[in-house]
Amino acid sequence: MFTVDSISIKYEQKSIINNFSFSAKQGEIVSIIGPNGSGKSTILKALSRLIPYHTGSVVLEGTDLKSMSAKQVARKMCMLSQKNQAPSDMTVIDLVSYGRYPHKKWFERLDNEDMEIVHWALEKTHLTTYKDRPIVSLSGGESQRAWIAMALAQRPKVLLLDEPTTYLDISHQHEVLELVRELNQDMGMTVVMVLHDLNQASCYSDSIVVVQGGEKAMHGTPNQVMTTDMIRKVYRMDSEIQYIPTEKKPRIHLLSTVK
């Protein structure tokens, strides 16, 4: 479905990401975790072609990303950044409608089919009653849902999320991640997201990629990755890992910084 093979990324001749590889299966949620400055968001930007990668390849549904036009990529993949901004007078439905433009010709108007998809995206993200409200009037969680609705309107096969819970309080973090899981399960959408919170990554991911110093340190299921040894080596923290049979995913309790 989505394969990243040995990519390397440089900024002004300085190596940021080295020989990085991972793959995501159809309908899988993959979280990328690691300390600040490890290169997590840089990887996501390269996967979405916001920045170039210098060596290696990214293959989406059997096609090399570099051989695809921007419109072809937008039809199959959508990325949402940490913080997204819309014009002050833009309404929710206006924003969501932008998701249809990768499927239209230059200057082609949205038709009835497009608007049906827009309203479907609003319904899926529980925003139908908010459709005429300005984006700036929404709460953090509501605003994030609106941007996800725009992404849904694109009908992408892959959704890339760069720290989708940043700037949100705990209840809105939960709301957004539950929505991501709901869309993944209902639509079979592949999700690759960067997360800071280890317990969120453990709870909501099918697999986790650990990045350290611009390189892949580990890749596996939450049970394989979330170990006291990994947390000590990568985050320099002592921890306890709790396994609750009813949850099936490990719960991490951070204790103290390694001296």
From TrEMBL:
GO cellular component, as recorded: plasma membrane
Record InterPro entries: AAA+_ATPase, ABC_transporter-like_ATP-bd, ABC_transporter-like_CS, P-loop_NTPase, Siderophore_ABC-ATPase
Localization, UniProt: Cell membrane
Annotated membrane topology: Peripheral membrane protein
SUPFAM superfamilies listed in its UniProt record: P-loop containing nucleoside triphosphate hydrolases (SSF52540)
GO molecular function, a single term: ATP binding
Gene3D superfamilies referenced in this protein's UniProt entry, alphabetically: P-loop containing nucleotide triphosphate hydrolases
Top-level taxon of the source organism: Bacteria
Broad class of where this protein is predominantly found: membrane
Protein name in UniProt: Iron ABC transporter ATP-binding protein
Lineage: Bacteria, Bacillati, Bacillota, Bacilli, Bacillales
